[in-house]
Amino acid sequence: MIKNFKKSSLNLTKEEYIKENSNYLRGTIVDDLKNETTNGFSGDNFSLIRFHGMYQQDDRDLRIERNQQKLEPRYAMMLRCRLPGGVISSKQWIKIDSFASKNTFYKTIRLTNRQTFQLHGILKKNLKSVHQILHKIGLDSLATANDVNRNVLCTSDPMQSEVHQECYEWAQKISNFLLPHTKAYAEIWLNQKKILSTDHEPILGKTYLPRKFKTTVVIPPHNDVDLYANDMNFIAIIENKKIIGFNVLIGGGLSITHGNKQTWPFLALELGYITLDKTLSVAKSIVTTQRDWGNRSNRKNAKTRYTIENMGLNLFKKEVEKRSNITFEPIRSYFFDTRGDKIGWKKDINGNWSLTIFVQNGRIYDNDNQLLKSGLLKIATVHKGNFRLTSNQNIIVSEILSENKNQIEKIALSYGLIKNTSKLRENSMACVSFPTCPLAMAEAERMLSNFITEVENIMLKYKMEKEIIILRVSGCPNGCGRSLLAEIGLIGKSIGRYNLYIGGNRIGNRIPKIYKENITEKEILVHLDFLIKNWSIYRKANEDFGDFVIRKKIVKEVINPIHDFWN
Ligand code: SRM
Ligand code: SF4
Known about the structure:
Layout: H1 14-20, H2 29-34, H3 45-51, E1 54-58, H4 63-68, E2 75-80, E3 87-89, H5 90-103, E4 109-111, E5 117-122, H6 127-136, E6 153-154, H7 164-177, H8 184-190, E7 215-218, E8 232-239, E9 242-250, E10 269-275, H9 279-293, H10 304-311, H11 313-324, E11 344-347, E12 353-357, E13 363-364, H12 372-382, E14 386-389, E15 395-400, H13 402-414, H14 423-426, E16 429-430, H15 445-461, E17 471-474, E18 488-494, E19 497-502, E20 513-520, H16 521-538, H17 545-551, H18 561-564
Parallel strand pairs: 6-7, 7-8, 16-17, 17-18
Antiparallel strand pairs: 1-2, 2-5, 3-14, 4-5, 4-13, 8-9, 9-10, 11-12, 12-15, 14-15, 18-19, 19-20
Helix pairs in contact: 5-12, 9-11, 10-11, 12-13, 15-16
The chain binds siroheme and iron/sulfur cluster.
């Protein structure tokens, strides 16, 4: 524990003091790394390592057993890489795969729904080596967790637009621009010498942000990044195949606390349009407004959406205009029509090919049906282009030259990477949950595949098997699986029990409403059977499931979540 920790009369949260007293995120992490009597970190370091992209976890399946054996929980770290826009080269993939196989408990790579990957189960003693490997291949895990701007998302599919490269570069620029300036990461993990200059955080400030902060760059009409769940969003406005500026939307977020009506999910709101040259200055002003006005006394009220609610959107906007010396122009016209990834082969505008591979819940491992991990590794050894991770937890093998297409297709087929999958499954998502997530209340990733099979059977029974429903599961109300932007969203309450939400829409700008509370998987399937049956009989032509349950008033539409979500 850092010694001079003391609470002031301002009633700041404990986390604020941890940051303040951390010596720019150093804490005493170095000492903990030397301590071989435990696999864990102590005191404030538990929280500080998150700023460096790691979480201390323990395997929850083993908790009771280890406790009975009087052993400490099986501590190990999860590392989350920074990968703005989700692009990773074949060479980088090979190294990551090798580290995962040799040095993690689970030997898997987990693609996240924010276009990066996590490695679960790294022992404390192996942490430095993973950072050094990342550094050697041009990657890091800086600022992928805790109270900073996280991994910046960008529409994944490079085939979909001529402006993709430009947008991807913006995602990188914004990510780099908003990174912490402290050299703590380089000193602790890469053994770089401490520079004896004073540390300074010009954008984030010494106590960083009040809470996590999430950013996207989006190319309409494809909302694969689920922009409405993010704090700050730049929607590309394109003229003559060039980006001329961005519509800026702020204040999205999905987490709630069961039963706490002071928490609500919220969709990002429009601030206005800016020309390209204003992008970084506006990004900085939004972040610093949130830094200075955000609530530091209550972490459940600290995200941008609550700051906007507390100060009002107009004042927030004025503050951003003042800080960046601009006036927002009216929002330019834009629309979205899709969210999911198009699985399979596509030809790009340069005549190259890409293969989008469906990855159930983003988990990359080998099993009896599919050698996903080995297959991707094999592709990486011959593929000269990149891999692109998507916000739907899938992976795109991109920039495949025509002459290499057959070779990659052969590998993909022989390892079972190309499969016939229902639209329902392709569009499903679950958060990690058990066994690694300390906050999990119910299963998510481990239950989804079989659960989808059951729902597929229902769809088949009512001849709806070719249809899409966006179905997502989160193991707790933090909502990492973005269930509160799904047409059918499950949120864990306790082992085997969930709240069932319905009525989100296909493009992700309507929050679903609770339909049944605290029910079992079996009960959920009975309700879904009833709802899907009715949808199959009474839907209007091509009417989506979410739109149907709203039109039929099966649940009330959530128009303003602050008022409508709970009531
Ligand atoms: Fe998340 C915390 C996993 C996307 C809202 N999230 C966690 C932790 C780190 C648990 C913890 O704090 O100890 C989970 C680690 C589990 C594990 O074992 O890996 C975790 N979140 C994930 C991932 C891996 C889910 C996935 O299956 O893909 C996603 C990682 C994204 C990334 O690469 O950065 C992930 N988390 C999200 C999203 C969705 C999104 O960002 O698009 C949300 C909802 C959107 C939002 O932020 O409102 C989300 N995670 C949370 C929250 C609630 C935050 C809040 O506003 O209150 C927590 C808990 C917290 O921060 O206190 C949380
Ligand atoms: Fe863990 Fe809850 Fe997030 Fe799932 S939703 S990963 S259970 S924090």
